[in-house]
Amino acid sequence: MDTQKHNEMIDRYSARNYAPLPVVIAKGQGAWVEDVDGRRYLDMLSAYSALNFGHNHPRVLEVFIEQARQLTLTSRAFQNDQFGPFCKEITEFCAMDLVLPMNTGAEAVETAIKTARKWGYTIKGVEPDQAEIICCDNNFHGRTVTIVTFSTDPQFRDGFGPFTPGFKIIPYLDPKALEQAITKNTVGLLVEPIQGEGGIVMPPPGSLKRCYDICRSHNVLFMADEIQTGLGRTGRVFACDHEDVKPDVLILGKALGGGVMPVSAVLASKDILGVFNPGDHGSTFGGNPLGCAVARTALKILTDENLSQRAAELGEAFMARLRTIGGSKIKEVRGRGLLIGIELHTQAGPAKTYCKTLKDEGMLCKDTVEQVLRLAPPLVIEPKDLDWAFERVAKVLG
Ligand SMILES: *Cc1c(COP(=O)(O)O)cnc(C)c1O
User: Fold this and answer.
1) Under a CB-based contact definition with an 8 Å cutoff, are residues 196 and 374 in contact?
2) Active site (annotated) includes residue 254
3) Among candidate residues 277, 304, 331, the one where a domain is terminated
4) Does 140 qualify as catalytic in the annotation?
5) Among 64, 167, 254, 366, which one carries the catalytic annotation?
6) Residue 346 is part of a domain; what is its CATH number?
7) Which domain holds residue 227?
């Protein structure tokens, strides 16, 4: 079947909850993919950072196939031989005491919310059902009913009420607003250290640290959603590292699954994740041996291939070049490491139009908000491929 036939079939049988570029991908290797008609594209989105190691990373693939032959799923009703090593390795990697594994990012965020609430009631002493969690304007944490409750994008909420009580919104990492929003019932601040879906919005300088300190002084958990920013993407292992902040609760997903499996996790100290008792919370697939094997490999590759450093160096050079593109379209180039946003002037028209043109040029990327193109290639991308991408961007946006 060719591209058109595939698109017709998808339009006919799939719910229309996405409006993707119409490219139909059939193969991938490293930073490159090929569509059903044999056209090649450079993947400058990496499945929203889930493909930090690129498509078909040989080590990920080998472990995935080998583990699939041995054992794929036990449920947590039984232990499996990948789970212990996974827990040990990821907690050491993140310098945390405990881990609670889930699958998708949204599930991990839900888990963090439950953790903060239970911690609030059992440790902090908040009155039953009074716990409050503070979130930031323009956030993205996933798509469950509870999570869209505190979205500030009307489309994410429209038609999905009634919502979950217990959330407050402040301007993104605004220390004054945080201080004012905290009450005796506040159990946590949930925040992305860089807002990805929100348009690659950078934290105001020093604000992560200041908000962290405010949380500390009020006995409020600082919960970092590093699902998109974590595991090397921003040039450090975690985006919070840029301000030497070690969150109380760390939420990981996307790249943790090595690009082949949904694997997410919540990590925290014993005092915090220790609040769970058997039966309180769970997931049939969470901690499955296939996911654990792949995640263990993902963490090893990140270290062995020094990918955080690579993201820092490649990202800095690439951003510097992007800033040399003249013309009337680009308003700002911003980001950290290989998480890069190109904001367009309003008069240039929506970013989506340029994503289509770039696709025709052989480069895949995605608009986030109306005026922002996000560039987030696999961290394993070759410098010459970034040069190639630069030429395409300069041609289309220059
Ligand atoms: C993608 C994302 C999520 C949701 O992850 P899913 O796996 O799509 O549920 C949550 N938070 C952030 C910051 C994300 O980028």
Assistant:
1) yes
2) yes
3) 304
4) yes
5) 254
6) 3.90.1150.10
7) 58-304
